[in-house]
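Session log. Operator J.P. requested a structure for one protein chain; no other inputs attached. Running the standard single-chain path with C-alpha cell output.
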Amino acid sequence: MKKIRSAITAIAAALPNDVLTNDDLSKMVDTSDEWIMQRIGIKERRVLKDKSKGASELGAEAVRNLFKKTGLQPDDIELLVCATITPDYPLPATANVISEKVGIKNAWSFDVSAACSGYLYALEVASKFVESGEYKRVLLVTAEKMTAITNYADRTTCPLFGDAATATLLEPTTEEVGLMDYILRTDGIGYKHLLIKAGGSANPATHQTIERGEHYLYQEGQTVFKYAVSRMADVSLEIMERNQLKPEDIAYLVPHQANMRIIDATAKRMELSPEKVMINIQRYGNTTASTIPLCLWEWEKQLKKGDNLILASFGAGFTWGAIYLKWAYDGSAVDNK
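Structure written below.
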C-alpha cells in the first residue's frame, strides 16, 4: 500500500484594503522611510481599521475566496485548523468563529498558537489528520490582525506588522508530492523576550496593565534577531542535508517575512540565489502566521508540480522550524485571485 501524504491542493488569501505606508508612520512616531527600509525592509503594510472586526473577519474572507476558487462547499470540509495569535476572543477559538461565518457545520475546528511559526506548526498538525487516511479535506486558515496588538507609540515595533489571512486546502495523495519532511523546534527560554505581558491568567487585565501598555506586543529586538538569524538558517540547512537536497534542487525558499537581514542570512547559508527566495515583506510587513502562505499564494502561478520548496520560520516562544514541501500541482493552470 502506498504511503498517504498531505498535499496543498489550493490556496487563497484575504487582505484589508487600507494601506499604512512608512510616510504615514513618520507622522505618528519618530521614524522615517529610510530608517525602516534599512533595518527591516518594509515599505508598507495592510491594516484592518474597523475596530469592531477581529481576525476572523479576514479568515472567513480567505475561506470564502478558496471556496469560490475551488467550487467546494462548506459541507465538504471535515476539519478547520486556525493559526493565530490575535484571536477574536480568549474563547471560543477563532476557528469556531470562522466556521460559523462561512457556514461550516459538519466539521470540528480548533486554534494553534505558535506566533510567526504558526503556519508551519499548524501545517504539520493538520497534515497528520490527512495522513491518517480518515480526513479527505482539511482547511488550514491563518488569521492575524497584528495591528490590534501593536503599540503605535513604539517606534521599534510599530513599523513591523500588518494584517492578513490565508486559507490552505490539504488533501491526501499517494504521489511523491506534498509534505515530505519537517523539523520543528521550541526553546522556552525565549518567551520573555517576545510576548504580550498582560491579559492572560498569569497577569490578568487591570487598569494598571492597560495604563502601562502591557497588552501590546513587547519585543527585545536585538535578542530576537540574534536567535532568529542562527536558528532559522540552521534548521533550513539541516532539512536540506537530511533530504540530500542541493541548492540547485530547490525551486524556492519560502521564509517567514519578519526582517530582510534574517531572510538574507538564511538564503546565504543555503547557498541560494536571490531569485530562489520568495519575498513580499516590502508590501505586507510581518503578518505573523500568514507570511509564508501569503508568499505561496502570490507565487502560485509560478509553481510547478514537483517543485521542491523549503518553508522556514522563527517566532515567539521561541518557536522555529523548516518544512520540505514538494508542490502538488501546476499553478499556471489555476484561475487565481
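Operator note: Residues 225 and 262 are 7 Å apart (CA to CA).
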